[in-house]
Amino acid sequence: MGRFMVMLLAVLACLAAPLRAQEAGRLIEYERVPAAGLPDQRLTIWLPPGYDAGSARYPVLYMHDGHNLFDVTKSNFAKIWAADKAMLAAVATGTVEPHIIVGIWAPGSDRHRQYLPRSLYEMTSGNLRAQMDGMTAGGVISHHYLDWIAGPLKTWVDGALRTRSGRDDTAIVGSSMGGLMSCYAFLERPEVFGRAGCVSSHWPAVDPRAIDEGELKALWDGWFAARLGQPDGRRVWLDHGTATLDAFYAPYQQVVDARFAAAGWQKGRDWESKVYEGAEHEENAWAARLPEVFGWLLAKRP
Questions:
Q1: 186: number of CA atoms within 13 Å, CB side?
Q2: Residue 302: inside a domain, yes or no?
Q3: Which residues form the domain of 102?
Q4: Model confidence pLDDT, tens digit, residues 229-273
């Protein structure tokens, strides 16, 4: 049996049984973290196996909805992404380096207004604007959230932990509204985030039955067209399922895919777009494909 298969089988066994601390990595938490223009934030950070015993520096992955990433007892729906186990599985393939994962909890009822891209919101009017206003009582604050992640939070993470802080070693991943937020961060801060995973992105942004699909598709197309630029070594993952809320996403995803292609991004190298037949809009579905997401998005450059 080859070395690759031995490593992969070992990780698969770990997914079915509890890992010892030195094999599983370590979680640290910070509550009531102040952030300008935002509700207090909360963090759960995963340090990879070997971090405490070594001196190596690590790339960093920022993830939204941090309460749903690691510990089922702290999750919203008794379901988690199992992001630490997905990272271990990706690392075992030999193509992905261990990453520090910074999980940023969603701030309860403020989640929608913290994740809705401000620059997209500012392009809206009429019914679409009214629908967004109805979902974001108190005003959209995603620009403050992005400023905080790319500024004070990243500065603190890079100072407190042994990180590699450059663009190519900094990724951001989220699902649903967090998928939109990840695209927003990637496009608005291309000097900070070299990789983004936009999983089951909620392209309608509000109730998909209450808006003009054609109007919103045109807005997303224009939004991406104005911001994509050249790949320049960056990488983006996009996906959706076909059941529950994800059943509404295909028309929007097709528009976004076409814009990437038109901008000269090479599919499979600079950007990837997947459809998961039968997959629902929920954490178990995202957990099932997260090793694949990490395996492509975070793979070492040749």
A1: 33
A2: no
A3: 3-297
A4: 999 999 999 999 999 999 999 999 999 999 999 999 999 999 999
